[in-house]
Specification:
988 residues; mainly beta; 26-stranded antiparallel β-barrel; eight-stranded mixed β-sheet; 8 helices; 47 strands; 6% helix
Length: 988
Amino acid sequence: MKKTVLIMLLSLVWTAVSAQNRSITGVLTDRDTKEAMAQVTVQMLNSDSTYVTGVTSDDNGKFTLKAPSDGKYILKFTSVGYIVSFKNVEVKDEGNVDLGEVVLGAEATMLKGATVTGQAARVVVKEDTLIYNSSAYRTPEGSAIEELIKRLPGAKVDDDGKVTINGQEVKKIKMDGKEFMTGDTQTALKNLPTSIVEKVKAYNDKSDLAKVTGIDDGNEEMVLDFGLKRGMNKGTFGNIDASYGTEDRYAEKLMGAYFNDKFRVMLMGNANNVNDKGFPGGGGRGNFGRGRNGLTTSKMIGANFNYDDGKKLKLDGSVRWNHTNNNARTKSSSENFVSTVGSFSNSLNQSYSRGDRWNAQMRLEWKPDTMTNIMFRPSVSYSADDSRSINRSASYNADPYNYVTNPLDEESIAELDKEDVMVNSNNGTSIGYSESKQFGGSLQYNRRLGNNGRNFTVRAEGRYSEGNSNNLSLTNVHLYQILNQAGLDSTYQTNRYRVTPTRNYNYTVQATYSEPLWKATFLQLSYKFNYSYSKSDQNTYDFSNLGEDYFSGLTPAYRGWGEYLARLENPFETYFDKSLSRYSEYRNYTHDIEVMFRMIREKYNFNVGVLFQPQRSNYKQDYQGVYKDTVRTVMNITPTLDFHYRFSKLSSLRINYRGYTSQPSISSLLDITDDSDPLNISMGNPGLKPSFTNNLRVFYNNFIESHTQAISGHLNFSTTRNSISTKVTYDEQTGGRITRPENINGNWNLNGAFMYNVAIDSTGYWNVSTTTDFSYNNYVSYLSLDRTSDSQKNITRSMTLGERLAGSYRNEWLELELDGSFQYNHVRNKLQAQSNLDTWQFSYGGTMYINCPWGTSLSTDIHQNSRRGYNDNSFNTNELVWNAQISQSFLKGKPLSVMIQFYDILRNQSNFSRTINAMQRSDVEYNSINSYAMLHVVYRFNLFGNKAARKEMRRGPGMPGGPDGPGRDRGGRHGGRPVRAMPMMPMM
């Protein structure tokens, strides 16, 4: 018995001793929110500041470190957006140390003598969300958010300002999770300064209905969510940017905001004539054709507000006025895949346009109790657009650049005519005006029936719009392959004035119900009815074939059709042509019946369902003396599957499939031939079948804490059965076409992208990022040479491969990045081997940012952009594009900055683009002003609730000593690596 007791006592002693394993534990919390802090980097340092070991806190803010031996140590705590904190710890007698609660906050005071050398993690992946740290992407002083987006791995901004993240177009902007200028992505990107942004999140946001019901309706939108710097949620801040440059360039911006705990309001204004390019302008980083689409002057005034009482009511709203004025001179060269002999065309178009747009929208969400959610979204808009243009074009039966350098001038046309290459030439003038008004809204009511997931939702939505358009078009056509009775080339004129009023409205009612089957498993039912109506009544006045010079001496002006109509011998109303006028009326009744099975598990979500859509359409048309009243009834079936697997909180895989049926438009089904334009005759096809498209998407995201490795990729595959293609019958004598819709099989495409970012060293000074994207398209179309020959199936296969590789070094005062990129286009045409293309676009160069402690900063980028493989040798260019900026900050806190920017210093940048599809290859070049200098004066004001917030606002992203710049270790919370050795800290 004594022996047994002794053994038990010795076991207890041994257990107690073995438990003393020199563990250091604690819980990290946020000073302001009191919440636990996950993914904080905790580093153990020796008393001489050499690194020992490190961990990151778990989801509950807890951490555990093991000391290698007894002694004194320094614990360092780092996290994005928080001041670095240190604690001195002593381990004695191999015992454990419990630090209890360790508080981190934005106002924490760093210990005297600390020198922090870690860098911010560039990008972090958390499940299906990409989190970019703005401090890791330095932008020139005064830059707008769009310039920050261009630097993010996996992000692209095209010539029209459209933003894509890993191939998905960004449809919505948020700020701190709150909607911002709903439906308008450009206002935020071009007006908000980068100096207020701490991080950028990119993720797919579900629809209002899906959020409250859990039913995946396939209406996800890619969102960019801008997180403001800490402490900016209380107070007033603003930004004024006044500028003027050579070539009469200007770009003025004004932004002001007031935030408190519940309410936010932001006002913005902008006036510029630089196509909203932002610094550093086009041409850098392989941006071919940046700033295209002519010369645009724009003015904008906008306001956004958000209200959240934290309990029951949320309000989001915005209003915007926008004015644009565009001057575009467009030169295009195309090869049309409609003839085995060859069909080429060139055009030169000078167009002017202007427009005014007003729009306003609001989102109201009310939760009267914990079980009820009511949401209301009204909207209203108005737009008016003017246009006028002069166009010259020509068609050829061989590549004109094999004979002349400028195929559209008179001498070249005469030479091409002698070589029997000319097919037709066309001189046109047009004047247009359109006006539209629209209002509508949606109301949604959701009620939870208990806590087990049972709920039902009713939703109603309606829209009404009306508009009117006026259009005058004058065309002189010269046919070189057809002779008239006098033995001369044939000519004709088409002169028409059209007035078209329109009216449209629709309404929708919907009900959904979710029934729990067993734990975390649901059956979801949805029914929706939609009715839509549209009417168009086009009146056409025809005064063709009055002679080529009948309207000579007149210059098109905005809404200036009166001068042309006044030259007619009779009032224009007497030229009314009923056969060319078109009345159409369309009614559509649609029922959506959806059944979905949904499972929610700790590691995965799984949805599978099917949508049945019976549809009835009624179409009335009176055109060219033929009246049609057609009714069509169809059934569409749409299966859907969505699987989302979470390997961890930092890694996820998502597989999404959706199939859907598309019905041909009723106008395409009508057996009517429209020959109002002799060179472009269209026919209907009553035998068209509905098409069915399969879409498969795969997304993968991962973040590896070692060296802050971020991995993201996606793969999309789409194929369509009974795709509706256009059969083109080409007349080689006139260059005219007869088009008729036809079903065809074989259209499919595959595209994907891969993004990888890694910090080479443990401190994050050295980073490498790579983005690879590819696409393969199999275009199938019909080709027919004349009215008597059978159509042939033509296949155009197009492959695009792109890569961008960048390496950067960044410290407290310097950032240097070297990058290279290329894009390879490979096109093969089955029936036209002479149309095969292999083109290359590649770029290499670097960017550099230098920040001096006295407030001076220098930004510059230089890139060599090259093209190869284009038919027109003038497009096979080497363009060395260099941009630069120097700025100086003044006054206490540096709120005033003066800078001068230099765009395209070497005057080498061009504006050129190429597009390829099943019907043609088209090269387009626009007018632009790429090379100029501009002086900016920027003043920032801020009145925040604490000094830390004011300090953050005064310093832009990456400024030395700033809250997000070098001198602060931002790696911890998002997976930062341990920093290198620091000076010895005094013991507390």
